[in-house]
Amino acid sequence: MHRYRSHTCGALRESDIDQTARLSGWVHRVRDHGGVLFVDLRDHYGITQCVADPDSPAFAEVEKFRSEWVVRIDGKVRRRPAGTDNPELPTGMIEVYIKEIEVLGAAAELPLPVFGEQEYPEDIRLKYRFLDLRRDKLHQNIMTRGAVVDSMRKRMKEQGFFEFQTPILTASSPEGARDFVVPSRIHPGKFYALPQAPQQYKQLLMMSGFDRYFQIAPCFRDEDPRADRLPEFYQLDVEMSFVTQDDVFAAMEPVITGVFEDFANGKPVTKNWPRIPFAEALKKYGSDKPDLRNPIVMQDASEHFRGSGFKVFARMLEDPKNQVWAIPGTGGGSRAFCDRMNSWAQGEGQPGLGYIMWREGGEGAGPLANNIGAERTAAIRDQLGLKEGDAAFFVAGDPEKFWKFAGLARTKLGEELNLIDKDRFEFAWIVDFPMYEYDEENKKVDFSHNPFSMPQGGLEALKTQDPLTIKAFQYDIACNGYEMASGGIRNHKPEAMVKAFEIAGYGEQEVIDRFGGMYRAFQYGAPPHGGMAAGLERIVMLLCGTNNLREVSLFPMNQQYVDLLMGAPSDATPKQLKELHIKANPPAKS
To answer: In angstroms, what is the C-alpha Rg of the chain?
Structure first.
C-alpha cells in the first residue's frame, strides 16, 4: 500500500465497502457522539467520515486529535448506519472504521477558523493565507480561477490564436499609471520597469508577422491603493493583425460569452452585445461601465425647466452648456423614499436631489412640481413613461461635472427599489472613446485612454481637428457595472504616432527615446492591427459571486499594498543597496 494513501478523501463510494483504505488529510472537525468519535478528514478532493469507538485500537489516539492536524488513517470501509447517510457529500454513503493512525503534522492553536465560512478580519486572513486557502469557498474560488484560464486558452486556440510569453523586465511606458521600477546592478543608475501591460511587445509581435497572439499576462501598476485594484494582476491579453474594430469584436465576443456560459451556473449571459458610444453611456447611465441589469435610463429633461417657475434650474439653463437630467424611479413615489434619496445625495456632498412624485390620479407632487406647474409636470411624466406611484429625480449643471454623481444616483435607485436582476450577466461594448482629455491638474491635453490607439480620421484628424473632439478606435467591455476589458485599433503609422504624442506634449525625439523599438518597427512595414486585454481577476470575481478581488487571488496584498504573509515590501540590506549603487531616502516620520 502507498505510504500515505490508497484513496483521496473524495474517492470512496459504496463499491469500496469492505475494502481496507488508507487516507491522509487534515482533521476538519471531530464530533463526540456518546463516546463514539467521528472525524471528518479533508483533503483537496473532498471529505470522508472516519469513525472510532472504544473498541477501536486507535481510539485513545483519536481522542487527541485537534482541528487541522494532518493525519494518516487506515481502516475498513463500511456503509453508514441507516438514517445517517449524507447525500450532500459524494462520500456520504460510506464511512471508514479507524484501525490505525499516524500523526503526520500536528497543528498549533489556529489564529482563524478553517471549518465554516464565518467572517474574519482580512488582515488576519492575509497573514495566515495558507490557512485561509483551506476554507472551502476560497479554495473553490481558486480552483474556478484555474478552470476559467483553461476555458480561455481552449477558446482562444479554437479561434486561431497562438500563445506567447513576453518579457517581465522592460522599459518604462506611459500606460496611465506609475511603473514599478527595478534597479540594475550591472548598469548603475539605470532601471528596468515591470510591465503595466505587454502593450508594446504584443504590437511588436504583429510587426514580426505572428498574426494572432494571446497570453495570460502578469501586469504591474504602482497605483494608489483602492479596494477594487491590485498592484499585481493578470489579464487575457490579445492582439490581431489585418483587423478592423468589428473583426476584434467578432473574435472576442464568443470567447468571453463562452467562458461566462461555462461558469454561470445557468444564469443568462448576453448573446448579442450592444455597442454603446461613450457619450451615450454617460448620458443614459452616468457611467462608462454601465450595469445594464439596472433598467433605469436617464434622459435630458432640460426643456421642461427652461423658463420655468423653478428658478434654480431655469437660471442654470441660461448657460448653454448646462442641462437637467431626469432619473426615473419606478415605484419610488413616496415622500419618505424621496426624502431618503435627498438625504443620501447630501451625504455624497451634493446640495440635494430634486424630485417629483406622482400620486393617485397622476398628479405631480413635491416642491419642483409646485414650481413648474401641472402641464410641465405631466410632460415630464409622459417623456419618462411613468405612472402614479412613481417618481423622478433630477440633477442639474454642467454634465461634465455631474455625470458621475448622476450615475451613482441611478445605481442607488436601482438598488433601493429592487430593480436590478442580479442573476444574470449583461455585457456591452463601449465604443468611440475620446482620444484626448484636458488634464486640469497639469493644464494640458493628455491621452484619455490608451496612447497607442488609432484616432478616428487618422493623421488628417490629428492635424485639423480640435484634439478634444477626436474620437479613437478604442473600446471597453462592460459587465454588470465593471470594466471587464479594454482595447483598441492601434496607430501603426509613424507620422501619425508622432503627431498623436506631440499633441499630448511629447516631442518626436522623446517618442523615439521611449518607444524606439516600436517606432523603428513601424518604419519597416507595419500591418493594421488591434486587440484588447480582459482582467482575469474581474472575470473570476463576477463568476464567483464576490465583489472583492482578494477572494479570487492566491496570495494578495492588503488594501495598503502590504504582503502580510511574506513581509513585503521590506528594507534592503546595506549590501544590497551598495551593489545597486542606491541610497534609501525615506521621508522623515512625523
So the answer is: 30
Contact call for residues 69 and 110 (beta carbons, < 8 A): no
Of the chain, the end-to-end C-alpha distance in Å amounts to 64
Backbone phi, psi, residue 568, to 5°: -110, 145
Prediction pTM value: 0.92
Q: Is the dihedral of CA 463, 465, 469, 470 positive or negative?
A: negative
Kindly report, residue by residue over 173-218, the tens digit of the pLDDT: 765 678 999 999 999 999 999 999 999 999 999 999 999 999 999 9
How do residues 513-551 score in pLDDT, each as one tens digit?
888 888 899 999 999 999 999 999 999 999 999 999 999
Name the 3-class secondary structure at 396: strand
580 Cβ contact list (under 8 Å, min separation 6): 183, 184, 185, 188, 572
Three-state SS for 9?
A: coil
**Nearest Cα to Cα of residue 74 among 54, 56, 92:** 56
Say if CB 143 and CB 254 are below 8 A apart: no
C-alpha cell at 578: 551598495
Other Cβ atoms less than 10 A from the Cβ of 375: the count is: 8
Q: Looking at 417-552, list the stretches that DSSP marks H as alpha helix, in order from N- to C-terminal side.
A: 458-464, 494-503, 508-514, 516-522, 536-543
Helix, strand, coil shares of the chain as percentages rounded to 5?
Answer: 30, 25, 45
